[in-house]
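# step 3/5: fold
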Amino acid sequence: MAKAQFHKHQKVWVEAVGAWATIEKLIPIWTKGFDEPVKITYEVGLGREFRADELKAEDVAEGTITPDVGPWRLMRARNKWQAPEESAHHPFPGTFPVVVTDANDWGGWRTPGAEYDRDPVKIEWQARLIANAPLLLKLAQELAASVSEAPEDAPPELVRLAKAANAVVRAVAEPPAG
């Protein structure tokens, strides 16, 4: 059975025309007796439907984040500025969170000690959110892709969520202007 290789609103290179286009609609081709489509074509607004082999996905620009960034981890670093007794009100006295985004346990996200001391619960929450960002991005991509395969079969609320997920994926993938 056919699986969609591209999703709605994805930018693709149309080899036959030699131009960039955006997927406007996925068109499943059904055959009697099969529960799933046997073929999927794509409408890109160029006057005819295109097969997947006629399209090429846009390369992700250098420096953008993709879901295969590897596992980001939350580690604890020793607080050099305060003794554990001075930071007894912290969730983990004597340490602060560090999100490591590199396989060699360096590189990533840290917060200044004074900022952590001001609101440690908020910083701990942010650290957990950042550490799980690649998984959340992958989830958003999969949600958008699954609904774009057959939006007419999806409940309206799921279509709304998929559009929001697609907007988040685009916001992460596209570098800011200026």
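# step 4/5: annotate
The first strand starts at residue 11 and ends at 14.
# step 5/5: archive (pending)
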